[in-house]
Design goal:
about 375 residues; alpha/beta; Lysozyme-like; 6-stranded mixed sheet; 12 helices; about 30% helix; binds zinc ion
Length: about 375
């Protein structure tokens, strides 16, 4: 979750919480019942977390109906392979919460794993070990007042990992289209990992939390057979749409740590400090980051100058994600240039326009191409 600003709201402390200690469970610390006014989460009705599912039609969710989603046993096996013994929370595999989340279809598979921080607004010195746990388990309600789990995994201040929910649930809310997932539908296609934190872009995670969260992310990617670049954070998906700022850490840091856990490497791309520089290597499908954003900003400015209707090609604006909208706007700019000059006509015809820029387009929009 984690917004820049948090309306203070009264919350019923989730006293019904209990921890099912099974053979798999490590020591479970008691869930601290939050006081009614020290809880900074932005909403208890779930609307902000629901994305397109708030008004969805729920159908019975059974294990068979959501069989494309990795089973709880698969996930637990992967967690244990990374040395994590999750604390299994009551109802962690109960289909009722997926039903309450109103997912209409059963044909989704995880395509991303999303890092969050809980964004309590409470400084680290005053954060209880499991400050947000009650809220995550029972604070989020659908429009009928029924509970929806707020993430899949929760990492307490001491690094202990709680398995909150094994099936699809709400954690992402509204956000940009990516990885072939339509806008606002990320909940049906992703795991969410909540890490207890002040939020507000404050980097206050404990070393134990960073280590545990990296292991959990590795396990979730592996259970879903996803590569490291499917690890995202809430701000990448919902920064533009909801003003999300979590996590407070650079996504490149998480990817490096998680890749290490998975036995691979992820080298965070070097970003030139010259704001005019655009790396041509990053001008590719599903690329994310600074260079993509620089390209989008410059392309939008140039496209507007050419008289293109940006809302038609690129309603989402500059997201830092190279997807179908960036391709469409690139093509539209190419087409305008083609109509204007013979050189561009020859160039674009020869290139068979796939919606990615060559160095001449990058120069044309006022930027400097680098490798
Ligand atoms: Zn978040």
């Amino acid at each position: 979750m984690s917004l820049r600003r948090f309306p203070r709201l009264l919350l019923t402390a989730g006293l019904a919480f209990s921890v099912a200690v099974t053979g798999l469970a490590a020591s479970a610390s008691a869930a601290g019942a939050d006081g009614p006014d020290d809880h900074g989460h932005f909403g208890s009705d779930g609307r902000a977390l629901a994305g397109d599912d708030w008004n969805g039609t729920n159908k019975p969710a059974t294990r068979a109906a959501s069989s494309n989603w990795p089973s709880a046993a698969t996930v637990i096996t992967r967690l244990q392979a990374h040395g994590v013994n999750p604390i299994l929370t009551a109802g962690f595999d109960d289909p009722v919460y997926e039903y309450n989340a109103r997912f209409a279809g059963s044909d989704t598979t995880p395509r991303a794993v999303m890092m969050h921080d809980t964004g309590t607004g409470v400084p680290a010195s005053k954060l209880k070990n499991t400050h947000s746990l009650n809220w995550i388990l029972s604070g989020v309600k659908n429009s009928d007042g029924k509970t929806v789990r707020a993430c899949h995994f929760y990492v307490a201040r001491d690094g202990s990992v709680y398995f909150i929910y094994a099936r699809r649930t709400w954690h992402a809310g509204a956000g940009d289209a990516m990885f072939g997932i339509p806008a606002n539908k990320m909940n049906g296609y992703s795991y969410g990992i909540e890490i207890e934190s002040q939020g507000d872009s404050v980097q206050d995670l404990t070393a134990a939390q960073i280590s545990s969260a990296s292991k959990v992310a590795a396990a979730a990617l592996e259970a879903s057979q996803l590569p490291i670049d499917r690890l995202i954070d809430h701000k990448l998906y919902a920064g533009r749409v909801q003003g999300k700022v979590d996590t407070a850490y650079d996504l490149g840091m998480w990817r490096s740590l998680v890749a290490g856990e998975m036995g691979t490497t992820y080298k965070a791309p070097y970003v030139s400090k010259n704001p005019k520089h655009i790396s041509m290597k990053m001008m590719k499908w599903a690329a994310t980051g600074t260079y993509v954003k620089r390209y989008q900003n410059a392309l939008r400015k140039y496209g507007a100058k050419l008289g293109l209707k940006l809302s038609r090609y690129n309603p989402s604006g500059s997201t830092g994600y190279y997807g179908s909208e960036t391709k469409a706007l690139t093509r539209a700019v190419h087409a305008k240039l083609k109509a204007k000059s013979k050189a561009w006509r020859i160039f674009v015809n020869k290139k068979k326009d796939k919606g990615f820029p060559a160095t001449n387009l990058v120069r044309k929009i006022g930027m400097t191409p680098i490798a």
